[in-house]
Amino acid sequence: MVLLAALMALSILTLVGLTATFITTTETLINHNLGSRLTNHYLAESAVEEGRSRLSTIHTVAEHEAVYLRRDGAVDPTAGSIGTNPYFDPAYGTHGMTSARFIDSKLSGVGFAWVRICRKTEERAGYELDGDSTNNAEVVGYGYDNNARELKAFQFVGSPAGHYGSPVYLLTGMAADPFGSRQMVRTELARPPMPPFSAALYNKTGLQLRDAAKIIGYDGDGRRDLTGIDTPDGVSGDTSAVRGAPAILSSSSSSHNIAALIEMFEPPVSIPVQRVSPAVSVSSGGYAGTHLRLGRPGTDRRAPTFADGDLSISGNSEGQGLLIVNGDLTVRGSFRYEGVIIANGRLRFKGYSVGSGTGIAIRGAIISHPEKGGAPSVFEGENIRIRYYSRIVAAQYQSLRYSVLSYRPLTSLE
Asked: Could you tell me which residues come within 8 angstroms of residue 139 by beta carbon, excluding any fewer than 6 positions away?
């Protein structure tokens, strides 16, 4: 009986040991698989980020084309099959992708396999946008409908009348390891679209001109003439120097969705104003600075400058690009700017000369649209000059980084 008891105890201990070994082995495999999955997931994210950064230099992607940024020349996602090629892309050759272009990655040491860049269609994205219950093969754009009363950017299929914007791209990144683990992520990217400009100056709550400010909608680049001032609430004061086609428009039925514009350009798309110009001081949510340099007119191309509150600029200042102000914009003295200014608040311009300055001179366009209404904007001083330049406006948007419209991991590469 002692022998039997010892054998039973030994059997139980053996069973416990085998169970512990099995559990440990299983946990080790689970952790290994989880580690491989996370590693490949982050590598796939690195792939789409490189695709995002290099999309601006690729310039164009044809509707039928798949552009692959690949780790090295040994990676060919278009050859063979899943069974013969660990880097095979089963989506290539489907949904109208009939040609491939290969570009070597600049991050080959990171270790992802490839990232595919193609134009977005409903078929390729796997869901429909326009409510017709059909995944169409037409390319998708991100922009505006000029027929809408409230101008807010959105995705649209094809080229409906009155719609315009920028292309939407699908970026799919894939990473694989020698054990057969594959991980994919997909992002949808588009360059922030240019808001529709009806005038050199759009001002939602009306404008008071205390002197003959020169506000000119005639295109300085000779492409498309606009209205000088577009304001639903009208203009008071001295309008003798306002020019355009027509000079003043007070019956505009559409308006900008200023909240959506601010959200589109806030960081990380833009750079906070205090980082662009260290001379800016911050107080109670407002920003103020004298002799600011927000870029050099005619030379710089940079990310938008963003002030998350009222901004006051004084002295002999200058700038270039996109200036986004989530509040009132006050300018006193000399201010030379090339580009687009968007303010979620009133404009207060007082253009007297300071030192060698020559007043306020803005080449581009301005949108002033207080979200909750309020008092009119005020321009004081004859040495205020605002003129629309289509090439300057367009250049600011062509230099913007692509924004992420959506992101999701993929379980397969359909």
From this structure: 63, 119, 120, 121, 157, 158, 167, 168
**Which residue type is seen at 155?**
Q
CA-nearest of 356, 280, 376 to 323 is: 280
* Three-class DSSP category at 34: helix
Question: In this model, does residue 361 exceed pLDDT 50?
Answer: yes
Q: What is the DSSP string of 52-86?
A: HHHHHHH----TTEEEEEESSTT--TTSS-TTT-T
Nearby residues of 310 by Cβ (< 8 Å), 6 or more positions away = 285, 286, 287, 325, 327, 328, 329, 330, 345
- One-letter identity of residue 358: T
Torsion of CA 222, 387, 167, 102, to 10 degrees: 70
Global model pTM greater than 0.90: no
What letter would DSSP give residue 258? H
Residues in the chain: 414
